[in-house]
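The instructor's notes for this session suggest beginning with a concrete chain rather than abstract definitions. Hand out the sequence below and ask the class to guess, before any prediction is shown, which regions might be ordered.
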Amino acid sequence: MNQREKAIFRVTFIGSIVNVALVLLKLISGIWGRSSALVADGVHSLTDFITDVIVLVFVKLSGKPRDKVHSYGHGKFETLATLIIGVFLTVAGIGLMVSGVRKIISSLNGEMLPEPTWLAFAVAAASIVVKEILYRYTVKVGRKVNSDATIANAWHHRSDAISSLGTMAGIGGAILLGDDWRILDPLAAVLVSIFIIKSGYDIIRPAINELLEGALPEKQTAEISELIGTVNGVKGFHNLRTRKIGNAIAVDVHVKMDGKLLLEEAHDIATLVEERIRDRFGKESIVNIHMEPLKQ
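After discussion, reveal the predicted structure:
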């Protein structure tokens, strides 16, 4: 296991331990504290634990070297993990929304919802602090090792913190404002679920783009073009194609050179182009250069 994998494993393992504790605490306190919002929040924390397991498994797979079956490496396994995290996040948000809407409808139809207790409020407040700390720690590691799956998992922690914030507000309102305001408990869950669904979508969209061989963002493509154009001996280039493979990028380009150059000289120029790209985007970058003589 290399240093990158160790860092991802460490932060994800810590997160999974915290998530298990929060799941148990929220579910038990939600039942004892008569808060449907906290129970739903506990289910959301359960999805955090599930995604932790997914990251641990898929990042290990993505770190495997190239083989005969996967000639470009196993980086897309990490992308698949990111996609699964996004789907879990979206499903969790939809589940919270459906549960909250049902409670709201029941309340509007005259059903008296149970009054939450201060125990539920305290657990929701503690969850906000713990999950925000976990988010900041995880996203810092994810950015340092350039892991989309780890960053996606960090946002899952942040969504749980915001979910608990809405839960705490709903519980507090239901306790302090009287019987007529107990509807705030499920209403908070519905409002938070909208954010969770949006977060899931923001994670799913780029993962799908990568799995469907979408090009790199325009800014990165322009930067690659500039790097190629500044190499001495490059007279022009075309047919630039880019994509992402896990935490690495892949670049294919046709580079024009003086047709009178010796093969060794042309090869040196092509090698310099590769080095420029790898120096900027990482040594794992895959660069394929087709050399063409410049037509006079």
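Then share the key points. The first strand starts at residue 236 and ends at 245. The mean pLDDT is 85.
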